[in-house]
């Protein structure tokens, strides 16, 4: 017979748990096994006090790495604060809920939604806006947004094609009062299917029967759990309409709906024909502490840079508009010390974006100049030839003669 494999005891569930917890757990295990060994060997335990565990000093390599990391964090201070202005020209004329807008700009789902809509604008026959601000306004004011009416109506009609789930054809644009009801019915139906097949999604695995566990592992019901668990165990539309949801949940619902459309077979085939560079969003580059910076080329009327922290936990809007881009590039170029891997890529990409701004500024300046010239010429009195002037004078004299008694 083969010998049993030794059991491996894992101490600490993640890297975030400190070394002190690991050492204390290890000490507990060793102190429990010591009396057994002493008993079998016939040696009595001494009553002397336990000697303190010797603290292991960090090696020179660890000290060097720590020092380098601290130095990088210090050198990266110029990039530690966002370069976003409180208000730029594009925002004027719009009323915002500052708190909701700030929450939206910390969600990676919104740029992802827009990227999906940009990729599928031709098969969906859905006009795309080159300003991310328009989509932010649509989610903050869902009851009065033509853009959101078009998006959700199109997505619902596309998903329900060939089924009796929704009673309207693609191409018909519904107002909020109608599409919000259809949207709520869709999610209530899907949550009902999920809950009836998966029993209680909040129940512990130990409380489930073998038959229920077999149902939960069935691949035919996996899509329900995979897609709906992202929105929570309970249906968000249980006692609320779309406008009643929090701004975060509205964004998540729209992203969930876009994901369902992407997974459609026709759309998958369409996307497979596109260039890989268009499908994937790669970071422009990285800073010295490993933060990644993202830029979405489709928003050429609302250019932005987002930052994803090195630990992948925080997503933030870091630069928006020409002024903030120039300020960020200036900080990058004047940072001291050796350039980190990916930092030079970030600088070069930002230089290209600034060049695009400058080219657009030149075109805009030329258009303004031509418009001013046209306005001046239109305002000037037009010159007439001597022949036409004499003819008009003769005609006026004849008219005066006829009118006189």
From TrEMBL:
<dbReference type="GO" id="GO:0006355">
    <property type="term" value="P:regulation of DNA-templated transcription"/>
</dbReference>
<protein>
    <recommendedName>
        <fullName>Uncharacterized bromodomain-containing protein 10 helical domain-containing protein</fullName>
    </recommendedName>
</protein>
<dbReference type="InterPro" id="IPR056522">
    <property type="entry name" value="KIAA2026_hel"/>
</dbReference>
<feature type="compositionally biased region" description="Polar residues">
    <location>
        <begin position="20"/>
        <end position="34"/>
    </location>
</feature>
<dbReference type="InterPro" id="IPR028938">
    <property type="entry name" value="Rsf1-like"/>
</dbReference>
<dbReference type="Pfam" id="PF23450">
    <property type="entry name" value="KIAA2026_hel"/>
</dbReference>
<feature type="compositionally biased region" description="Basic residues">
    <location>
        <begin position="37"/>
        <end position="59"/>
    </location>
</feature>
<feature type="region of interest" description="Disordered">
    <location>
        <begin position="1"/>
        <end position="68"/>
    </location>
</feature>
<feature type="domain" description="Uncharacterized bromodomain-containing protein 10 helical">
    <location>
        <begin position="109"/>
        <end position="268"/>
    </location>
</feature>
<dbReference type="GO" id="GO:0031213">
    <property type="term" value="C:RSF complex"/>
</dbReference>
